[in-house]
Amino acid sequence: MKRLTLRDDPAAIVVELREPVTPAADVARTVAEILADVRVRGDDAVRDHARRLDRLELPEHYGVAPGDLRAALDAAAPELRAALDLAAANIRAYHTRERPAAWRETLAQGQAVGQEIVPVAAAGCYVPGGLANYPSSVLMTTIPAQVAGVGRVVVCSPPRSGGGVAPGVAAACALLGVNDLFPIGGAQAVAAMAYGTDVVPRCDVIVGPGNAYVTEAKRQVMGEVRIDGLAGPSEVLIVADADAHVDWLAADLLAQAEHGSGAMAALLDVGGGLGDRVAAAVGRLAAELDLPTGRIAVVSCPDIAAAVRLVNDFAPEHLELHVAGAAALVPQVRSAGAIFVGPRAATAFGDYAAGTNHVLPTGGTARFGQGLSVSDFVKRVGWVELDQAAAAALAPAVATVARDEGLHAHARSAELRAEP
Predict the structure, then answer these.
(1) Euclidean distance between CA atoms 93 and 28, whole angstroms
(2) Considering Cα of 365, then 366, then 371, then 375, what sign does the dihedral take?
(3) How wide is the angle at C-alpha 289 spanned by C-alphas 287 and 283, nearest 5°?
(4) What is the pLDDT of residue 29?
């Protein structure tokens, strides 16, 4: 566990806390080869890479059968089914509230302008898997696409050794009515969704976190499809004062460490009085749960203002506020993926069932990025409608600017519309 002190330069602490993540050259080369192969050979390439990387023989039609999806949901423990139902309802309610709406306005010269909100035709959701089981990631990636009105949602998740996908992933797909589930992972899954194959539909958007190969594949197909972002190691900053509950802080720090793969958790200790007590609590709980503490840090901060400055410089994926008047601090936070307000609002609630999305910007990209939302699955299409009066009012300005730019046909086009 690392102990740091914030003095004058938050940027120095950011460097101490966050390890830079750059794609290895061999990962980029391998991903480029897989993408090119799937683009040319389609499902044959997907099957070859599944055989080579997953030691699995995919059948000709390797999508998970609807009957298997239903069976996975029927086999889910009742308490898991109830928990998924509750989480899905909250996530759907949250994303329904953020759904953008079309609008229309008449401007000064009489022209009508507006914007239509159009969902993409097909969305691809990558759900990590392998030995893990992440039904929550199905909910988080699929529900905002459904709220957006996407016609077809495709889910890819790494196969289990005996075939198929993790049972919770299949159950969550059945719960949400997603029928296009494919047991493929890694760069080949991203390639299949980006380019389309005979089995996997081509998608317009690809979202969801994954390993270094998935992230690099999303980087390389970006531009041919929309992506949500490039996921790095998960992270949390917890701002706490002397009255914070030490055992709760320890649990939240270790919950972040539990993500593994470089996950980082830091306590911003306002006033500097928590460090020893939190370190002791972390040590006890880490021993009980057999979790690492090497990527956990305690940063002593002189006051709340300094802690908020560090938060905005760091731009954390998750931010917890365990301080008096936490809600009043929210408007001061300019860069965070999600904010958990007050000591009872643990990040774990947002990871699963509170309603907010857990696909969030990492690695400082919360400076300009945001969590997965309905907006990731729609297009805003502007439109304009003019009658003769509006055209006559606008044409002189259009023609003046167009001729100044040397575009005389543009000027003529506008002026012709101004004629009675």
Answers:
(1) 39
(2) negative
(3) 35
(4) 95
Q: Who contacts 34 (Cβ-Cβ below 8 Å, separation ≥6)?
A: 45, 49, 186, 187, 188, 191, 217
Q: How many CB atoms lie within 10 A of CB 144?
A: 31
Kindly tell me the burial class for residue 370, based on how many C-beta atoms sit within 10 Å of its own C-beta (0-12, 13-18, 19 or more).
Answer: middle
Question: For residue 70, which of 175, 184, 207, 187 has the smallest C-alpha distance?
Answer: 175
Q: Residues with catalytic annotation?
A: 317-318
CB atoms within 10 A of CB 74: 10
- Taking the C-alpha atoms of residue 135 and residue 173, their distance in angstroms, rounded to an integer, is 8
Residue 205 and residue 202: Cα distance in Å, rounded?
9
Q: Which two tokens stand for residue 95?
A: 């994303």
List all residues 6 or more positions away from 345 whose beta carbon is below 8 Å from its beta carbon.
320, 354
What pLDDT is attached to residue 300?
96
In angstroms, the CA 293 to CA 2 distance is 9
Q: What is the mean pLDDT of residues 157-182?
A: 94
Check pLDDT > 90 for residue 25: no
CB–CB of 131/410 below 8 Å? Answer: no
Confidence of residue 129 (pLDDT cuts 50, 70, 90): confident
- Residue 77: exposure state from Cβ atoms within 10 A (0-12, 13-18, ≥19): exposed
What is the reported pLDDT for 130?
66
Cα–Cα distance for residue pair 79/86, rounded to 1 Å: 11
- CA–centroid distance for 278 within its chain: 30
Position 284 scores a pLDDT of: 96
